[in-house]
Protein: RNA polymerase sigma factor
Amino acid sequence: MASIDNPLPGTETKPGLPQTVQVHLGRQLRAAYAPLETAATPEIFLALIEKLEAALAAQGRAVEPEFRQGMLAALSSLRAFALSLTNNAARADDLVQDTILRAWQNQHRFQPGTNLNAWLFTILRNAFYSEQRKRMREVQDEDGSYAARLFTAPDQGHRLDVQDLRAGLAKLPPDQREALILVGAEGLSYEEVAGICGVAIGTIKSRVNRARNRLAELLGYGDDDLTGDRMMQSAMGEGV
Structure:
């Protein structure tokens, strides 16, 4: 996991974005996402897993302990990702429950030794977009009202810059936001996120880069800041 004084994975220096901005965005992204990751796991998820285990036991079968433990450990991250996609707690919980059911039914397809979280994120993401297609509409945010509600802080003690970043995240296009969250907040590799989203690695890198630059703009970093940093890097001969 990245330290607080270093950029998160996926937020390393790119042309046009200063290192100091990289560090700031990485730090604030983790701060904005942390409350969702550390929130108590809703009992409905644990109860569902218990029911599924009981159903298996009735058939004289048992789930692999590693799979069960991995799923339990992933629940908070799954709910956080679902909230970032839906901006609705009830829908997010339904989506996580659907993901648990699908994963349980298809656990024979999971390859031990690979990233279980990435596999679960793929199931959740596919379920979300399948639901969206059924609704035959896309979320619109012409006036920024949706953005203002997404990532609402669970308490009033959060710093203003974290709240600003939450609002900035919500203003990003969905494909950029999910790429930045999966790479930056969840710590998945570009390759893993490319697999989850079903696109090329270069596309994910581009989405993360555009998301970072847009966030920097929303947080008030002007062209002069970026230009000055490029000039300094060029004068020092640093590779970027």
